[in-house]
């Protein structure tokens, strides 16, 4: 039986915004009632258009943000309301890899300090062990031992992201949220970094929540994939099942953006039309109804339940499996 590592239950993250002195307070519903489970050793890809809430969800899970509502159960403990002293311990087990390897590394710190800073802060090594441990970690991430005395500006984009991965790995975590970790890199370098992350996952028994706007990147690394739209999860299933049998109209539309060698496959799919609506005044009923080619009256009124349509295949659409 698969061992759960993370359960996200009805999590919401709303940000209040100032609307003016006499106006009703408004809020951005960045994450709006999301639930899913992750298992030990798996990579769950999270995809969706920019602004769909996937990065906010990742940051809420690692508790950089406090959830507005819902529960985050990590290794059987509800961490959703943990405060700073307990969160410090959590940082050892849950790490975040940032998108931009150019701005996420302090230019005044050398690799040794960047990778080893948290090791010393958390007293995970003695001063005598420090250099050997940092060298071991950077080598696992495909860098050389002599790199530890160099500074970020002396590295390429791909190497900088390797430093970012090494910094996360130094804490010996179980779970890593990787937020668009290769989107700032050239395509030729992307697969090298993804292969390295896959190798580290196998070697250290890691679980990844891998966030990307790019379905072809997510396809490369994920075991299962979740699709987000306007703060909600609209589809979740295994990688092959999602690519061979997408059931939500939004997922079908996203698939159109991927170059497809078999034209017969994409003929059946409808392109998504129109602009993504605001996540302040979200559409009623199904949030996708303003852009959905299959929309019917019920879609404007009733929120579709996120339900299991086929085994391990969850979809939030009133007509999933029929269209
Ligand atoms: Fe389209 Fe209706 Fe399904 Fe929403 S519930 S995706 S509007 S068919």
Detailed description of the structure:
The chain is α/β, with parallel strands linked by helices and 323 residues long. It has two domains: 4-93 and 173-316, P-loop containing nucleotide triphosphate hydrolases (Rossmann fold), CATH 3.40.50; 106-172, no CATH class. It has helices spanning 54-61, 84-93, 111-121, 127-140, 157-169, 187-204, 215-221, 239-244, 249-256, 263-267, 297-301; strands spanning 4-17, 26-39, 43-47, 69-74, 77-78, 94-97, 175-179, 207-212, 224-229, 232-238, 306-310, 313-316. Helix 3 crosses helix 4 and helix 3 runs parallel beside helix 5 (157-169). The radius of gyration is 21 Å and the shape is globular. 40% of the residues are buried. Mean pLDDT is 91; it is low at 265-270. It binds iron/sulfur cluster. Iron/sulfur cluster is lined by residues 249, 286, 288-289, 292, 294-295, 299, 304, 317-319.
Features:
Rossmann fold; 323 residues; alpha/beta; 8-stranded mixed β-sheet; globular; single chain; 4-stranded antiparallel β-sheet
**Could you state the order of secondary-structure elements as H and E?**
EEEHEEHEHHHEHEHEEHHHHEE
Number of domains: 2
Question: In whole angstroms, how far apart are the ends?
Answer: 33 Å
How much strand content do the residues show? 15-25%
**Which blocks of ≥5 consecutive residues have pLDDT under 50?**
265-270
What is the general shape? globular
- Total E-strand runs: 12
Sheet with the most strands: spatial strand order: 6-7-8-3-9-10-12-11
CATH architect. name of the largest domain:
3-Layer(aba) Sandwich
Helicity range of the residues?
A: 25-40%
